[in-house]
Amino acid sequence: MTKPPTRLSIVVPVLDEAHGISATLAALAALRGEGHEVIVVDGGSHDDTIARARPLADRVVGAARGRASQMNAGAAIARNDVLLFLHADTRLPPDAAGAIALAMASGRRWGRFDVAIDGGSRWLPMIAAAMNLRSRLTGIATGDQGMFVERALFASVGGFPPIALMEDIELSGLLKRHAGRPACLKERVRTSGRRWDRDGAWRTIALMWKLRLAWRLGVDASTLARRYGLSGAPRRVLQVFAKAPEPGQVKTRLASALGEQAALDAYRALVEHTLGVAAEARRRGVVSAIELWCAPDTTHPAFVAWARRCGATLHAQVGAGLGERMHGALRDGLTRGVVPILIGTDCPAMDVGYLATASEVLETRAAVLGPVEDGGYALIGLTRDLDLFSGIAWSTARVMPDTRMALERLGARWAELATLWDVDTEDDLARWRSPHATVA
């Protein structure tokens, strides 16, 4: 039986590329005629990029700003079995599809092209040669080289990590672990050298090496994006987890001592206190937005009133257990290109200064945790998607120790803030209501 031809889904992330997008897409017209598809993913252009792209692409869609989120959005709607990620200022070589098909037929599941850099600097040929050699030696591909990958493999590794920079390097590492080294095709894509020409070849090289070193040392992607000169680096977003205020469903340990109504009243007071702190944090610029993550859904009138009062958006918690729901919310934020800081509502010792410290920590760490006295934590912030939530015995003293072990296993750099206390018992409630309640 004859194997069907390899069909490509070419994903092109764009942002204000009106000056060159027509030429980029026109160069792909022959591939479209052969049954390959072209998907343009816009990250919020303010020029007429979309209008110029629409007649020259199979689909034009929008996504959260950032190459990772845009390329993931394009991959999610792709129809063909092989994904090719192409920057808007990059041109494919002749018979790129045939070269990819041969690589796939040989057993490779992902790869990239060699690159040539167009521009005025006489150093660009040497820079391109160094990029190609480094890629062959390390098995790491960059976005400028026209990365391609089986769609099923891309999905199995979770796509591009939702980070503001270094997403291509991180994806390369994932693909190497799952499918071996890439196919390094000698055919050359041609990419623009406008950054090298604008900022100077050696200055740009030095900056890129500094960024790579900082990334390996654990500096988070949003900080690197700002150093690289990318606007729109991820914002800090405060995610507040809350349950619908129903008798017998909240503060059950308090309810056993004080009764359901008293526990419900205490719970409402705690939520309103937390949202007041959140609103002040946003006013001071510590976070740029507040999200109220609701269980079991967003329909309870109290959620609507609370969100209106503090200017929060409503989101439904999704998942079978607390860990799955937390991971889902954090991943949702990261996928949208923001840095999420997730808190509960039962830690009245948490104040704006505490949140500001958490935000500052995330400039240089992959994670931040706010421990509480009972062995859990009241705050977690992430700059990359980390699986810290599987196998955790929630509501036990093992939460923090097991989370530390998970962070160590993943090789992630993290920081822990001052230990706080939360309200679970009658004594905790009295402690909060005492005029001397402070951070522990």
Instruction: State the end-to-end CA separation.
Output: 71 Å
The CATH homologous superfamily of the largest domain is termed Spore Coat Polysaccharide Biosynthesis Protein SpsA, Chain A
CATH 2nd-level architecture of the largest domain: Alpha-Beta Complex
Oligomeric state of the chains? single chain
Biggest sheet strand order reads 3-2-1-4-7-6-8-5
* SS-derived structural category: alpha/beta
Instruction: Estimate percent helicity.
Output: 40-55%
Give the number of domains.
2
| Poorly predicted segments | none
For the record, the CATH class of the largest domain is: Alpha Beta
Q: Write down how many β-strands occur, each being a DSSP E stretch of 2 or more residues.
A: 15
**Range of strand content:** 15-25%
Our count of helices gives: 18
What this model shows, in words?
This protein has 440 residues and is α/β, with parallel strands linked by helices. 42% of the residues lie in helices and 19% in strands. It has 18 helices and 15 strands. It has an eight-stranded mixed β-sheet with strand order 3-2-1-4-7-6-8-5. A seven-stranded mixed β-sheet has the order 11-10-9-12-14-13-15, sandwiched between helices. Helix 10 packs antiparallel against helix 11. It is elongated, with a radius of gyration of 25 Å.
